[in-house]
Amino acid sequence: MNYCLETFFTSANINQIMLFCRAPSAESSTGLPPLLTSLLDALSRLLKPTLPPEIHSLLFPAVPTRARQAIINRYDPGEGITPHVDLLGRFGDGIVGVSFGSGCVMQFASGLKDQAYGVYLPERSIIVMSGDARYKWSHGIEEKTMDYVQTPDTLSGDAGGRWMKRTMRISITFRWLLPGAEVVGGAEDRDPSG
Ligand SMILES: O=C(O)CCC(=O)C(=O)O
């Protein structure tokens, strides 16, 4: 979090940073900043026991062949991101993100199924989106300063809840660029938050 604040969010009007790295090749090895590479290594280790093996190797292939993008978003309390499905023509399957500093509720909605759910992402939690979650459900964050979060009472079985105040949240999300999508420019590139 401090690294992002000191390195990227040096002015109050910067709230989103996009970083791109090329697919590894014999000629070039341009990569993400070391801290983000270490974060990816840590995510790979942490998620190995939990994720189905095919999803783990989609996100963390032994030999990556595609270009990765990292988006770092900073949200002050009351800020959010418009519901969206990540650009179909630019990003592939397999998205992994981490919340730092604050939790928030992320809204998932499926127009096809006419369903919507709010999922609380606690501080330091990891989210993985793949398959239908990536392609068929939109995700977004409402512009609120607090989230009502259900906390099922495991003893009585009664579902209760409480308001969770948001503080500054920084999210780091990694995506795969589709072949050719490294060429940036044009309306398609605008991220919904900007
Ligand atoms: O802040 C987040 O966790 C989500 C970010 C996001 O959806 C995006 O950058 O497109």
From TrEMBL:
It comes from the Eukaryota. Pfam families: 2OG-FeII_Oxy_2. Residues 66-178 form the Fe2OG dioxygenase domain. InterPro entries: AlkB-like, AlkB-like_sf, ALKBH7-like, Oxoglu/Fe-dep_dioxygenase_dom. One of its GO terms (biological process) is fatty acid metabolic process. One of its GO terms (cellular component) is mitochondrial matrix. PANTHER family: ALPHA-KETOGLUTARATE-DEPENDENT DIOXYGENASE ALKB HOMOLOG 7, MITOCHONDRIAL, SPERMATOGENESIS ASSOCIATED 11-RELATED. This is Fe2OG dioxygenase domain-containing protein. It comes from Guyanagaster necrorhizus.
